[in-house]
Amino acid sequence: GHGTHMAGIVAASRTFTSPGIAPDASLVSVRVLDQNGSSRVSTVVLGLEWVIAHKASLGIRVVVMALGAPAAGSYREDPLAAAVELAWRSGLVVVTAAGNQGPGAGTVETPGIDPLVLTVGASDDNGTPTPADDVLPIWSSVGPTPDGLAKPDLVAPGRKIVSVRVQGSTLDVQSPTHVEGPSTIRFSGTSQATAVAGGAAALLLQQRPDLNPDETKALLVQGARPVAGANAAAQGAGLLDVRRSLAAPRPHVRGQHLPPANGLIRALRPLLTDQLGDDLLDADQVRSDQIRWDQIRWDQIRWDQIRWDQIRWDQIRWDQIRWDQIRWDQIRWDQVRWDQIRWDAIIWD
Predict the structure, then answer these.
(1) pLDDT digits (tens, 9 = 90+) for 230-239
(2) How many Å apart are CA 134 and CA 129, to the nearest integer?
(3) What is the CATH number of domain 2-253+313-335?
(4) Residues 6+ apart with CB under 8 A from 65
(5) Is 0.85 topped by the overall pTM?
(6) Where are the domains of the chain?
Protein backbone atom coordinates (compact mmCIF):
# COMPACT_ATOMS: atom_id res chain seq x y z
CA GLY A 1 0.00 0.00 0.00
CA HIS A 2 2.83 2.42 0.76
CA GLY A 3 4.49 2.12 -2.64
CA THR A 4 1.17 2.41 -4.45
CA HIS A 5 0.33 5.53 -2.45
CA MET A 6 3.67 7.04 -3.54
CA ALA A 7 3.13 6.01 -7.15
CA GLY A 8 -0.26 7.71 -7.23
CA ILE A 9 1.17 10.96 -5.88
CA VAL A 10 3.82 10.93 -8.58
CA ALA A 11 1.86 9.85 -11.63
CA ALA A 12 -1.82 8.95 -11.12
CA SER A 13 -3.76 9.71 -14.30
CA ARG A 14 -5.63 12.95 -14.89
CA THR A 15 -8.95 11.10 -14.71
CA PHE A 16 -8.25 9.70 -11.23
CA THR A 17 -9.90 11.28 -8.20
CA SER A 18 -6.52 12.61 -7.06
CA PRO A 19 -4.30 13.08 -10.14
CA GLY A 20 -0.55 12.77 -9.76
CA ILE A 21 1.97 15.59 -10.04
CA ALA A 22 3.33 14.19 -13.34
CA PRO A 23 0.45 12.15 -14.84
CA ASP A 24 2.32 11.57 -18.11
CA ALA A 25 5.30 9.99 -16.37
CA SER A 26 5.93 6.27 -16.63
CA LEU A 27 6.60 4.32 -13.44
CA VAL A 28 9.00 1.48 -12.73
CA SER A 29 8.41 -0.27 -9.41
CA VAL A 30 11.44 -1.71 -7.61
CA ARG A 31 10.45 -3.44 -4.40
CA VAL A 32 13.03 -3.37 -1.62
CA LEU A 33 10.74 -3.46 1.45
CA ASP A 34 8.39 -6.19 2.57
CA GLN A 35 4.69 -5.77 3.33
CA ASN A 36 5.54 -4.54 6.82
CA GLY A 37 7.92 -1.88 5.53
CA SER A 38 11.17 -3.48 6.64
CA SER A 39 14.34 -4.39 4.81
CA ARG A 40 18.13 -4.44 4.97
CA VAL A 41 20.47 -1.80 3.64
CA SER A 42 22.00 -4.42 1.37
CA THR A 43 18.59 -5.03 -0.24
CA VAL A 44 18.08 -1.32 -0.88
CA VAL A 45 21.57 -1.12 -2.40
CA LEU A 46 20.76 -4.04 -4.71
CA GLY A 47 17.58 -2.25 -5.78
CA LEU A 48 19.55 0.86 -6.71
CA GLU A 49 22.09 -1.24 -8.57
CA TRP A 50 19.24 -2.74 -10.61
CA VAL A 51 17.90 0.71 -11.44
CA ILE A 52 21.31 1.93 -12.60
CA ALA A 53 21.78 -1.16 -14.75
CA HIS A 54 18.35 -0.77 -16.41
CA LYS A 55 17.93 3.00 -16.52
CA ALA A 56 18.76 3.31 -20.22
CA SER A 57 16.55 0.48 -21.43
CA LEU A 58 13.59 1.56 -19.28
CA GLY A 59 14.03 5.32 -19.58
CA ILE A 60 14.44 5.89 -15.84
CA ARG A 61 15.40 9.48 -14.93
CA VAL A 62 14.16 9.96 -11.35
CA VAL A 63 14.46 7.69 -8.29
CA VAL A 64 12.00 8.37 -5.45
CA MET A 65 13.28 6.89 -2.18
CA ALA A 66 10.50 7.22 0.40
CA LEU A 67 12.45 5.37 3.10
CA GLY A 68 15.10 6.07 5.65
CA ALA A 69 17.34 4.80 8.42
CA PRO A 70 19.00 6.58 11.36
CA ALA A 71 22.21 8.34 10.36
CA ALA A 72 24.95 7.02 12.63
CA GLY A 73 27.84 8.99 11.12
CA SER A 74 29.25 10.79 8.10
CA TYR A 75 27.78 10.19 4.66
CA ARG A 76 31.28 9.25 3.56
CA GLU A 77 31.11 5.99 5.52
CA ASP A 78 27.45 5.27 4.82
CA PRO A 79 26.59 2.47 2.36
CA LEU A 80 23.27 4.04 1.38
CA ALA A 81 25.04 7.31 0.63
CA ALA A 82 27.50 5.43 -1.59
CA ALA A 83 24.63 3.78 -3.44
CA VAL A 84 22.70 7.00 -4.07
CA GLU A 85 25.88 8.71 -5.23
CA LEU A 86 26.36 5.89 -7.73
CA ALA A 87 22.85 6.54 -8.99
CA TRP A 88 23.32 10.33 -9.09
CA ARG A 89 26.62 10.19 -10.93
CA SER A 90 25.10 7.79 -13.45
CA GLY A 91 22.57 10.49 -14.39
CA LEU A 92 19.64 9.73 -12.10
CA VAL A 93 17.91 12.39 -10.00
CA VAL A 94 17.58 10.83 -6.54
CA VAL A 95 14.85 12.30 -4.32
CA THR A 96 14.92 11.15 -0.69
CA ALA A 97 12.80 11.60 2.43
CA ALA A 98 14.23 13.65 5.29
CA GLY A 99 12.39 11.48 7.80
CA ASN A 100 9.68 11.91 10.43
CA GLN A 101 11.90 12.27 13.48
CA GLY A 102 11.45 16.02 14.17
CA PRO A 103 11.38 18.47 15.77
CA GLY A 104 14.84 17.87 17.24
CA ALA A 105 17.94 19.09 15.40
CA GLY A 106 20.10 16.57 13.56
CA THR A 107 17.28 14.12 12.84
CA VAL A 108 17.59 13.85 9.04
CA GLU A 109 17.89 10.21 8.04
CA THR A 110 20.11 8.43 5.55
CA PRO A 111 20.30 8.47 2.56
CA GLY A 112 18.97 12.03 2.91
CA ILE A 113 22.22 13.05 4.62
CA ASP A 114 24.12 12.73 1.35
CA PRO A 115 24.97 16.16 -0.13
CA LEU A 116 24.21 15.19 -3.74
CA VAL A 117 20.62 14.03 -3.45
CA LEU A 118 17.49 16.16 -3.16
CA THR A 119 16.33 15.70 0.43
CA VAL A 120 12.71 16.60 1.12
CA GLY A 121 10.96 17.60 4.32
CA ALA A 122 7.21 17.97 4.74
CA SER A 123 4.90 20.97 4.82
CA ASP A 124 1.27 21.19 5.93
CA ASP A 125 -1.00 23.18 3.59
CA ASN A 126 -3.77 23.32 6.21
CA GLY A 127 -6.21 22.08 3.60
CA THR A 128 -6.18 25.31 1.60
CA PRO A 129 -4.83 26.13 -1.89
CA THR A 130 -2.93 29.21 -0.74
CA PRO A 131 0.58 28.80 0.67
CA ALA A 132 0.05 31.79 2.96
CA ASP A 133 -1.12 29.58 5.83
CA ASP A 134 1.36 26.75 5.29
CA VAL A 135 3.34 25.51 8.27
CA LEU A 136 5.82 22.71 8.94
CA PRO A 137 4.52 19.66 10.83
CA ILE A 138 6.35 19.01 14.07
CA TRP A 139 7.43 15.52 12.95
CA SER A 140 9.35 16.57 9.81
CA SER A 141 13.06 15.93 10.40
CA VAL A 142 15.46 18.81 10.95
CA GLY A 143 19.09 19.37 9.98
CA PRO A 144 21.99 19.61 10.07
CA THR A 145 23.48 16.28 9.03
CA PRO A 146 26.30 14.57 10.98
CA ASP A 147 28.70 16.37 8.60
CA GLY A 148 27.14 19.74 9.44
CA LEU A 149 25.44 20.04 6.05
CA ALA A 150 22.14 21.89 5.67
CA LYS A 151 19.35 19.39 5.02
CA PRO A 152 16.56 19.07 3.99
CA ASP A 153 17.00 20.95 0.73
CA LEU A 154 13.34 21.98 0.57
CA VAL A 155 9.88 20.97 1.77
CA ALA A 156 6.79 19.82 -0.11
CA PRO A 157 3.20 19.04 0.90
CA GLY A 158 3.24 15.94 3.09
CA ARG A 159 0.32 16.09 5.51
CA LYS A 160 -2.99 14.35 4.84
CA ILE A 161 -2.13 13.60 1.23
CA VAL A 162 -4.82 11.67 -0.65
CA SER A 163 -3.65 9.07 -3.16
CA VAL A 164 -4.29 5.56 -4.44
CA ARG A 165 -5.65 2.99 -2.02
CA VAL A 166 -4.95 -0.75 -2.17
CA GLN A 167 -7.91 -2.41 -0.49
CA GLY A 168 -6.81 -5.11 1.92
CA SER A 169 -3.16 -4.04 2.00
CA THR A 170 -1.25 -3.79 5.27
CA LEU A 171 -1.68 -0.02 5.51
CA ASP A 172 -5.31 -0.19 4.45
CA VAL A 173 -6.15 -2.70 7.17
CA GLN A 174 -4.20 -0.77 9.81
CA SER A 175 -5.68 2.62 8.91
CA PRO A 176 -9.47 2.35 8.43
CA THR A 177 -10.06 5.95 9.56
CA HIS A 178 -7.82 7.23 6.77
CA VAL A 179 -9.91 5.79 3.96
CA GLU A 180 -11.33 8.55 1.75
CA GLY A 181 -13.18 6.37 -0.75
CA PRO A 182 -13.15 3.03 -2.56
CA SER A 183 -9.91 3.89 -4.36
CA THR A 184 -8.33 6.59 -2.19
CA ILE A 185 -6.70 6.89 1.23
CA ARG A 186 -4.77 9.65 2.98
CA PHE A 187 -1.45 9.47 4.77
CA SER A 188 1.12 11.91 6.12
CA GLY A 189 4.90 11.92 6.13
CA THR A 190 8.01 13.02 4.35
CA SER A 191 7.44 9.97 2.15
CA GLN A 192 4.45 11.76 0.65
CA ALA A 193 6.44 14.99 0.33
CA THR A 194 9.21 13.08 -1.44
CA ALA A 195 6.74 11.71 -3.97
CA VAL A 196 5.47 15.25 -4.64
CA ALA A 197 9.04 16.47 -5.24
CA GLY A 198 9.79 13.41 -7.38
CA GLY A 199 6.82 14.27 -9.57
CA ALA A 200 8.10 17.84 -9.86
CA ALA A 201 11.50 16.54 -10.99
CA ALA A 202 9.75 14.42 -13.62
CA LEU A 203 7.90 17.50 -14.93
CA LEU A 204 11.19 19.38 -15.29
CA LEU A 205 12.78 16.51 -17.19
CA GLN A 206 9.73 16.19 -19.45
CA GLN A 207 10.07 19.88 -20.24
CA ARG A 208 13.88 19.82 -20.61
CA PRO A 209 15.15 16.26 -21.10
CA ASP A 210 18.77 17.42 -21.34
CA LEU A 211 18.94 18.58 -17.71
CA ASN A 212 21.43 16.69 -15.57
CA PRO A 213 20.75 15.80 -11.90
CA ASP A 214 22.63 18.83 -10.50
CA GLU A 215 20.67 21.19 -12.76
CA THR A 216 17.36 19.56 -11.91
CA LYS A 217 18.06 19.85 -8.20
CA ALA A 218 19.17 23.47 -8.59
CA LEU A 219 15.97 24.43 -10.41
CA LEU A 220 13.79 22.89 -7.71
CA VAL A 221 15.77 24.39 -4.83
CA GLN A 222 16.07 27.84 -6.40
CA GLY A 223 12.37 27.86 -7.23
CA ALA A 224 11.30 27.15 -3.64
CA ARG A 225 9.66 29.89 -1.56
CA PRO A 226 10.48 30.34 2.15
CA VAL A 227 7.75 29.31 4.58
CA ALA A 228 7.13 32.33 6.80
CA GLY A 229 8.06 31.78 10.41
CA ALA A 230 9.38 28.25 9.86
CA ASN A 231 12.69 26.94 11.17
CA ALA A 232 15.35 27.38 8.47
CA ALA A 233 16.98 24.10 9.49
CA ALA A 234 13.70 22.29 8.85
CA GLN A 235 12.62 23.93 5.58
CA GLY A 236 15.86 24.36 3.66
CA ALA A 237 15.20 26.66 0.71
CA GLY A 238 11.48 26.60 1.46
CA LEU A 239 8.31 25.23 -0.11
CA LEU A 240 8.53 23.57 -3.51
CA ASP A 241 7.07 25.77 -6.28
CA VAL A 242 7.20 23.74 -9.47
CA ARG A 243 5.69 26.54 -11.58
CA ARG A 244 8.60 28.83 -10.70
CA SER A 245 11.07 26.04 -11.43
CA LEU A 246 9.48 25.29 -14.82
CA ALA A 247 9.60 28.98 -15.75
CA ALA A 248 13.21 29.51 -14.64
CA PRO A 249 16.10 29.55 -17.12
CA ARG A 250 18.63 26.75 -17.14
CA PRO A 251 20.86 27.24 -14.11
CA HIS A 252 24.62 27.60 -14.25
CA VAL A 253 25.70 24.79 -11.96
CA ARG A 254 29.37 24.13 -11.33
CA GLY A 255 28.63 20.80 -9.73
CA GLN A 256 28.81 19.65 -6.15
CA HIS A 257 32.45 19.07 -5.28
CA LEU A 258 32.30 17.73 -1.75
CA PRO A 259 34.31 14.54 -1.18
CA PRO A 260 32.47 11.50 -2.52
CA ALA A 261 31.40 8.66 -0.28
CA ASN A 262 34.17 6.09 0.23
CA GLY A 263 31.86 3.33 -0.97
CA LEU A 264 31.34 5.15 -4.25
CA ILE A 265 35.06 5.24 -4.97
CA ARG A 266 35.50 1.59 -3.94
CA ALA A 267 32.71 0.54 -6.29
CA LEU A 268 34.10 2.53 -9.21
CA ARG A 269 37.79 1.83 -8.63
CA PRO A 270 38.09 -0.55 -11.63
CA LEU A 271 36.65 2.17 -13.90
CA LEU A 272 38.65 5.06 -12.44
CA THR A 273 42.20 3.76 -12.66
CA ASP A 274 42.69 5.28 -16.11
CA GLN A 275 41.73 8.69 -14.75
CA LEU A 276 43.22 8.57 -11.27
CA GLY A 277 45.92 5.92 -11.36
CA ASP A 278 46.37 2.48 -9.85
CA ASP A 279 47.43 3.83 -6.47
CA LEU A 280 43.95 5.05 -5.57
CA LEU A 281 43.35 3.91 -1.99
CA ASP A 282 40.26 5.71 -0.74
CA ALA A 283 38.08 8.74 -1.29
CA ASP A 284 40.28 10.95 0.90
CA GLN A 285 42.55 11.22 -2.14
CA VAL A 286 39.76 12.15 -4.52
CA ARG A 287 37.57 15.17 -5.18
CA SER A 288 34.44 14.78 -7.25
CA ASP A 289 35.62 17.44 -9.69
CA GLN A 290 38.69 15.30 -10.49
CA ILE A 291 36.52 12.61 -12.03
CA ARG A 292 35.18 12.83 -15.57
CA TRP A 293 31.81 11.33 -14.77
CA ASP A 294 30.59 11.51 -18.37
CA GLN A 295 33.29 9.05 -19.45
CA ILE A 296 32.37 6.28 -17.02
CA ARG A 297 30.79 3.28 -18.73
CA TRP A 298 28.12 2.52 -16.18
CA ASP A 299 27.10 -0.61 -18.03
CA GLN A 300 30.56 -2.06 -17.38
CA ILE A 301 30.25 -2.09 -13.61
CA ARG A 302 30.40 -5.70 -12.36
CA TRP A 303 27.95 -5.41 -9.50
CA ASP A 304 28.66 -8.94 -8.36
CA GLN A 305 32.30 -8.01 -7.79
CA ILE A 306 31.73 -4.92 -5.68
CA ARG A 307 32.97 -5.60 -2.18
CA TRP A 308 30.20 -3.93 -0.21
CA ASP A 309 31.60 -5.67 2.84
CA GLN A 310 34.50 -3.23 2.69
CA ILE A 311 32.16 -0.42 3.59
CA ARG A 312 31.96 0.34 7.29
CA TRP A 313 28.58 -1.24 7.89
CA ASP A 314 28.87 -0.57 11.61
CA GLN A 315 28.35 3.12 10.88
CA ILE A 316 24.69 2.60 10.01
CA ARG A 317 21.77 1.00 11.79
CA TRP A 318 21.09 -1.22 8.78
CA ASP A 319 18.47 -3.19 10.63
CA GLN A 320 16.22 -0.13 10.93
CA ILE A 321 15.46 0.67 7.29
CA ARG A 322 11.82 1.64 7.23
CA TRP A 323 9.12 3.84 5.80
CA ASP A 324 9.59 7.24 7.33
CA GLN A 325 6.04 7.08 8.66
CA ILE A 326 6.89 4.42 11.21
CA ARG A 327 7.20 5.44 14.86
CA TRP A 328 9.99 3.18 16.09
CA ASP A 329 9.30 4.00 19.72
CA GLN A 330 6.39 1.59 19.36
CA ILE A 331 8.64 -1.39 18.56
CA ARG A 332 8.82 -4.26 21.03
CA TRP A 333 12.63 -4.42 20.98
CA ASP A 334 12.66 -7.79 22.71
CA GLN A 335 10.93 -9.21 19.63
CA VAL A 336 13.30 -7.73 17.05
CA ARG A 337 15.25 -10.10 14.84
CA TRP A 338 18.29 -8.38 13.39
CA ASP A 339 17.45 -9.48 9.88
CA GLN A 340 13.73 -8.70 10.09
CA ILE A 341 12.10 -5.85 12.00
CA ARG A 342 8.54 -6.26 13.20
CA TRP A 343 6.45 -3.79 15.12
CA ASP A 344 3.31 -3.93 17.21
CA ALA A 345 1.81 -0.53 16.53
CA ILE A 346 2.02 2.34 14.08
CA ILE A 347 1.02 5.91 14.88
CA TRP A 348 -0.50 7.65 11.87
CA ASP A 349 -1.10 11.38 11.52
Answers:
(1) 999 999 999 9
(2) 9
(3) 3.40.50.200
(4) 84, 94, 95, 96, 97, 111, 194
(5) no
(6) 2-253+313-335, 262-310
